[in-house]
Write a structure and sequence with these properties.
17 helices; alpha/beta; globular
């Protein structure tokens, strides 16, 4: 890292947006450059270029309207000169193609449509070319396309986090990155994990292409941006058919109402295998939040274009909910599919998860602390699909709940999972305090179970060995495979 005359690194002077100034430094290293050409070539504001030139101090030579770096100083700026990466790009494209070939199959109910390898590479190169990824904290809201892995392969020093609803994607990204990409579970309709709130400079997402979907994902993206929010960028993929411009207007209106301004819209930036109704393409929206962009948006269940969580999907019949409450027990309290806070009651709880795409069941049972929980699900729910899936769910929660899986109840298309709490002395604190910071809860549990023989430092060391880098996170926000590994330790 070279240092300017002002004795500050360039990334401290210009933040994550100094990639444009790389172009300016490259030009200055090549020889005399008219000031106007520096502005034009970098697309940086005039005052920003002036600040760069001022910061270069005595390393800069001026000749009327042109400037250059002194030939004797050029070597000091080698790390900021741009180079031709075409050969590297070709190798990276082959790597990305291999990753995408093995990615878990798309889920139509989550509006998954696979981006082409060329698109994923283009995203990574564009991010690296426009932002300082070593300095920026980058969050991906959903990543079935594996853009995070492409960025990681291109820039191993980038600090990347993926938040996704799909447990399969989280496990795949975690395994392929060797844990270098942080993976967290969330359904954005419920909310973001606290660990990523106000913590990112860049947020990237390819959300559901409904006004409700893009509005929700953009709102969560704004919540994830660090202060001051106007310095961050929200990058969204969005496409609509030119035959139906009103759909594009609705989505853009959602973004404008969130206090976002369009810094750029790059047409047909993304290409897909499928999505032919919109020409198998989508634009890249580069959104800059304004000072009014902190408003939250309540998540609706219907944000997708297909399946039980689509915008047009109806609600659960009252007769089914009556049957669920009867199974739960007298005086059962009805709760929504929400695990953002503990579900603590002294009596039984009934929860309707008929729209569950798969991950909700585990999350609500981690959140619940009640003597009995009865959950209504589709008969085809992944955790009920076969004996292996049922055994995995039962084993995962055995230190908190004893489960009864009632298939074809109350009718032949639904099922009910009844969870009865184990005796207090047999419950695992990691499961009963799933909203606490993992490091704190686990440390106290280890010390308590050792009758004081284990010190706090011993406990911390144990946790770091078995769950490196996860102490500040909540168990309920971790991917399922991580939860299983932790409970096995």
């Amino acid at each position: 890292m070279f240092r300017l005359a002002a004795m500050k690194p360039v990334d401290e002077v210009f933040g994550i947006h100094h990639q444009r100034l790389r172009s300016a430094i490259t030009l200055l290293c090549r020889g005399w450059q008219p000031f106007d050409e520096l502005v034009r070539a970098t697309a940086a504001p005039r005052r920003t270029v002036e600040e760069l030139l001022e910061a270069l101090g005595d390393d800069l030579e001026r000749d009327q309207r042109s400037v250059r770096l002194r030939p004797t100083a050029v070597a000091n700026y080698a790390g900021y000169q741009e180079s031709d990466a075409s050969e590297t790009d070709s190798e990276l494209l082959a790597t990305i193609s291999g990753l995408i070939e093995r990615v878990p199959p798309p889920l139509a109910a989550l509006d998954h449509v696979q981006a082409t390898p060329e698109t994923v590479l283009r995203r990574a190169l564009w991010l690296a070319g426009n932002y300082d990824l070593a300095r920026a904290r980058t969050l991906f809201l959903g990543d079935h396309d594996l853009t995070s892995l492409a960025v990681h392969a291109l820039r191993p020093d980038a600090r990347l986090t993926v938040v996704d609803l799909d447990e399969r994607v989280l496990e795949y990204v975690d395994r392929l990155s060797g844990g270098a990409v942080t993976t967290l579970h969330a359904d954005l309709r419920v909310g973001l994990p606290p660990a990523v709130l106000a913590g990112a400079e860049l947020v990237f997402s390819d959300p559901p292409y409904t006004p409700e979907g893009i509005g929700l994902f953009a709102s969560r993206g704004v919540q994830a941006l660090a202060d001051p929010v106007s310095e961050g960028r929200l990058l969204l993929a969005y496409g609509y058919s030119p035959r139906h411009p009103a759909l594009g207007a609705q989505a853009q209106r959602e973004l404008a109402l969130l206090g976002l301004t369009f810094e750029a819209i790059l047409p047909d930036f993304h290409r897909y295998f499928g999505a032919q109704a919109i020409g198998s393409a989508a634009d890249l929206y580069v959104c800059q939040p304004t000072a009014q962009a902190r408003k939250t948006k309540k998540g609706k269940t219907g944000i997708y274009t297909h399946g039980p969580q689509s915008v047009e999907a109806g609600g659960t019949p009252a007769t089914l909910l009556d049957s669920l409450r009867e199974i739960a027990g007298t005086g059962a309290e009805t709760r929504a599919a929400d695990w953002s806070a503990p579900i603590s009651t002294k009596g039984p709880v009934a929860i309707d998860l008929t729209a569950d795409p798969g991950p909700w069941l585990l999350r609500v049972l981690l959140a619940a602390n009640a003597p009995r929980v009865a959950v209504l699900l589709p008969n085809s729910h992944p955790d009920l699909a076969d004996a292996r899936a049922q055994a995995e769910l039962t084993g995962l929660l055995r230190e908190k709940y004893a489960l009864r899986l009632l298939r074809s109840t109350p009718d032949n298309t639904h099922a009910v999972v009844v969870a009865d709490a184990v005796p207090v002395g047999e419950a695992n604190p990691l499961l009963t305090k799933a909203h606490g910071k993992l490091g704190n809860v686990w440390r106290e549990a280890l010390i308590s179970s050792s009758d004081g023989a284990m010190t706090k430092n011993d406990a911390r060391a144990h946790i770091e060995r078995h769950a490196p880098g996860l102490s500040a996170h909540r168990l309920i926000d971790l991917p399922r495979h991580r939860i299983a590994a932790i409970l096995g330790k």
